[in-house]
């Protein structure tokens, strides 16, 4: 559920995490999920299918997205779209004036390298299944259904991400410092996620124990 606190803005849950007030209702769980799936698909995977024109950096017109949204959902509104974006705990989207985009997760071809800062962390992490680990240690990490490889900025975050796909993940550590010194560009999408076009096998190792 998304609600709005007059002092702290939009939030998810029953009460504002900053001050504990209940706030004003904006979206229930069902509509939040439906709106979230639509926005994710439109900004990451099929903009042209819903009539949106996306530039090479992933931006689309906020007004055009809103037009498509309100035509599809009678209850859609600009406030509800803004609430969905600004309350997102994973920081998946960003708005810049009259434009909006997904920050990561694209399957359409986008170029984000010039938009985000270069990664500063010496190590990054990537969770895989037991069945995948040997193949990745031999051939490296490459995107499958996405434009970029999504790397976690912490061990804990990599475990959380991997558990969505496998019950017993193996966590790989990426020597980001060496990779970047060797010319592999790694950029920071948000506090949890870094992006790269690929990571060669020589920069990977298995994390034996949680740090």
TrEMBL record:
Keywords: NAD, Transferase
GO biological process, one term: tRNA splicing, via endonucleolytic cleavage and ligation
Superkingdom to which the source organism belongs: Archaea
Annotated coiled-coil segments of the chain: none
Alphabetized InterPro entries for the sequence: Ptrans_KptA/Tpt1, RNA_2'-PTrans_C, RNA_2'-PTrans_KptA, RNA_2'-PTrans_N
Record keyword Acyltransferase present: no
Record EC number: 2.7.1.-
GO MF annotations in UniProt: NAD+ poly-ADP-ribosyltransferase activity; tRNA 2'-phosphotransferase activity
Pfam family, one: PTS_2-RNA
Keyword check for NAD: yes
Protein family (similarity comment): Belongs to the KptA/TPT1 family.
Function per UniProt: Removes the 2'-phosphate from RNA via an intermediate in which the phosphate is ADP-ribosylated by NAD followed by a presumed transesterification to release the RNA and generate ADP-ribose 1''-2''-cyclic phosphate (APPR>P). May function as an ADP-ribosylase.
NCBIfam families to which the protein is assigned, alphabetical: PRK00819.1-5
Name of this chain's protein: Probable RNA 2'-phosphotransferase
Organism: Methanomethylovorans hollandica (strain DSM 15978 / NBRC 107637 / DMS1)
Upper lineage: Archaea, Methanobacteriati, Methanobacteriota, Stenosarchaea group, Methanomicrobia
Gene assigned in the entry: kptA
């Amino acid at each position: 559920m998304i609600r709005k606190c007059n002092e702290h803005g939009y939030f998810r849950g029953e009460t504002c995490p900053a001050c504990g007030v209940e706030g004003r209702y904006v979206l229930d769980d069902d509509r939040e999920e439906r709106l979230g799936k639509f926005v994710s698909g439109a900004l990451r995977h099929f903009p042209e299918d819903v009539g949106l024109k996306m530039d090479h950096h992933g931006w689309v017109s906020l007004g055009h997205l809103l037009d498509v949204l309100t035509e599809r959902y009678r209850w859609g509104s600009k406030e509800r779209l803004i609430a969905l974006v600004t309350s997102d705990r994973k920081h998946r989207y960003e708005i810049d004036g009259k434009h909006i985009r997904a920050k990561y997760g694209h399957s359409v071809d986008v170029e984000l390298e010039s938009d985000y800062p270069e990664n500063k962390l010496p190590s990054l992490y990537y969770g895989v299944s037991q069945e995948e680990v040997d193949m990745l240690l031999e051939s490296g990490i490459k995107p499958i259904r996405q434009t970029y490889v999504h790397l976690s900025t912490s061990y804990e975050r990599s475990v959380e991400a991997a558990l969505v796909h496998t019950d017993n993940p193996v966590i790989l550590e990426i020597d980001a410092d060496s990779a970047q010194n060797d010319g592999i560009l790694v950029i920071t999408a948000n506090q949890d996620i870094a992006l790269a076009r690929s990571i060669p096998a020589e920069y990977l190792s298995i994390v034996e124990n949680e740090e």
